[in-house]
Amino acid sequence: MRILAPINNTEEVEDIIKQGADELYCGVLPYLWKGKYSNVASPNRREWSSANLKSLDELKKAIEMAHAYRKPVYLTLNALYTEEQYPLVLEQITEAEKARVDAFIVGDLGLLLFLRKMRINSAIHISNTATTFNSEAVEFYKEFGARRIILPRDLMLDEIAELVALKEDIEFEVFIMNSGCKNIDGFCTFQHGVNEILHPYAWGASKRMNLDHYLLESIRRLPRRLSARLKGSIFGVDSACLLNYKVSSVPENIPRKDKQDIINSVSASFNLLSGADTCGACDLYRLKKIGIYSLKIVGRNYPTSKKIRDVKFLKSSLLYLENNPLISEEEFKKQIKLKYKDVYKTSCKETCYRFD
Q1: How many CB atoms lie within 10 A of CB 143?
Q2: Which end of the chain is more exposed for a tag (fewer CB within 10 A), N or C?
Q3: Quick one: 265 and 281 in the same domain?
Q4: Within this chain, do residues 246 and 104 fall inside the same structural domain, yes or no?
Q5: DSSP designation for 119
């Protein structure tokens, strides 16, 4: 399995590759686009300026650096676009092709039609925002020339296994670390990144210095009861989906106890501490048997040190699995938790991607 790692600046490219990343992906939020449509309408669904390369020249440089190590770079263009935005989208595609980008990550059906007419040289990867839940969807996207499908994080392991077994002629990619969310990405209409507009100086400085990340890292290391009290009380959240929603309406035919469990679960899922540092490393054992091609680390806006730790952790976990082919799944999970503590200097909190 290959490790796909995020970048948001050219200075981190070599360090992330040297730690074991096999592939890189990124987005570009040019000044012209941001000026016309704001960061909230980002062309790649990462609404913070700090999560993106700032120009197509930066993209070209990142590609050149990665190709020097024979590593591919994928450009994320997985938003939904209006007709007015297409000239600027086309500019990114054209300049990325000139720079020899290896693939475009796409979620918009209109853009897929557009790319087919253009007869681009780069590969097409279908974003998780395109909600590929079954084999019919896979066949549909293959008609557009898709080489890889990035599966929604909502699919369980058994569903992933069935899909991969049916469609062996295409690459499948799954999320493996960070940014867990109860919502389905392709159906999400929440607005993100609004604090960059409301508080441009304070929020911009916080993001550039990764202060929000380091603060949350510190909170998460606390005992669960204490961290739960602190969630949402330190500073305002940047996305509507992370507000503390109170859920009160569920189907009437559900037993009372199950109904309350659902309410408690959903209410506790949307807060300042949710949606970050989710991990699926314990499932590497089964993902390898299933035949997953690539493992996606989320977090383009994270500091380089965090990205390096994530790549290092996954690389060592994959090497351990490769060097111990007879190990049981239970023992593998024990060893992975030890590796987690060694790399992150804190015990696993079992904030997992739930694949089964």
Answers
A1: 9
A2: C
A3: no
A4: no
A5: T
